[in-house]
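lol so apparently i was supposed to do this last week
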Amino acid sequence: MSLVMDDKAKHEAMMEKIQSGQKLESLDEITEDYKDNLLKLMIAQADSELAGAYGYVPWIEGAPNMPEKLAMANIVKDEIRHARAMYDLLERMGVDTDKLIYEDKMQHRMKVFYEPINSWADLVMFNFLMDRAAGHQLKDAAECSWGPWSRAMIQIEKEEWMHVAHGEHWVKRLAEDTKTKPDVQKALEFWFPKVNKVFGKSGTDTNKTFQQFKLKQRDNHDVRESWYEEMKPLLEGYGLTVPGIDVVGQ
Ligand SMILES: [Fe+2]
Ligand SMILES: [Fe+2]
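anyway here it is w/ fe (ii) ion bound
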């Protein structure tokens, strides 16, 4: 059998497993194309976990009271643990993770992680919007066709929803206080368009490929919408004005 035929047979066997809902477990079962697409998504998540942790670090010192210092430290610990789980998976696939962490980080990091967090209102709004965005994205990853990633995501997703609850508690509290309400509204207007972008563009070919391989279950825009539909009534319930969703997500 020629090499081309081998590749074709491998692709067909792989697609059959994917379509019947089986998980892929070893590098022998996957094509280069699948692996490239998988690595793109896993590297993006690994870097986001790490960058997320770094973003929270200054807020251990910046937290308004002692219980909040512990809450911030716990979120940092969770995010570093998520990052470690992701880099461990990548290492087992033969990826040079030190290179990713120490040399290539600028290539992978999402813009939102470079934005300044200047106040506690900024921090809790980032927490409210961004951890919830992660929760919605990880829901797809938890159902993905790559077994090791899917299993790792189940615990990570649970912890993201605990972070979301923390953000909710604080946004509600600051919004209900007339003194801090303008700050939290301003923070919402600052973060909203930036977090809207982290879902990526709608309806791209790359996204269709991710869905064919069941590396994602939905188009980026469907994930963005599920995020929006969930948080809009919450924020409006706190008396805040919610910006409109950007359907293109550019
Ligand atoms: Fe995380
Ligand atoms: Fe988180």
